[in-house]
Every structure is written in structure tokens, then in C-alpha cells.
Amino acid sequence: MASNLHVRNLDDELITRLKRRAARHGRSAEAEHREILRQALASEAETSFEALASELRKLTKHRSHTPSEILLREGRDER
Exposed, middle or buried by CB within 10 Å (0-12, 13-18, 19+), for 27? Predict the structure, then answer.
């Protein structure tokens, strides 16, 4: 699915540098935008749900937890 991204309030100097870079690579400024974003995000590793859940368990392991059935019962009793 293709989507559009609009970036506002860029400095004129930044735009000039982007256009020069695009020209050096033989691309349009728009194609250069896409390539810069692709490269920047390609180096970021996607974190798995399991890794996120493990990290959350580590962060909260010393906290006291109320079992969900107690929270549900309390919620019902408040009605």
C-alpha cells in the first residue's frame, strides 16, 4: 500500500542539500526522500512481541500484582 508523507517547515538550506544529493545519485528529490527514509529505517531492528513482553516482565517483576479476577470482581461490585 502506497501512502503519502508531507514534511513541512524545512529549512531552505536543507532542501538545497537534498536536491544536490538527489542530483548526485541521479534521482528526483522525491526518490531521494524515499531512499533516505528506507536506509534510515532499514538499520532499525523490529522488536518481537516476545522480546517486548520479556522486557516488561523484567521491569515489573518486583511490583505487587492484583490478579485479574479480583479486579473484575471489584469492577462488578462497583456497579
Answer: middle
Tell me which residue range forms the domain holding 16. Answer: 12-78
Task: Provide the domain count of the chain.
Answer: 1
Averaged pLDDT, 34-56: 91
Q: Alpha-carbon dihedral of residues 41, 36, 17, 13, nearest 10 degrees?
A: -40
- Per the CB < 8 A criterion, the answer to whether 21 and 32 are in contact is yes
pLDDT averaged over every residue in the chain: 92
Residues 22-31: contacts with CB under 8 Å, at least 24 apart: none
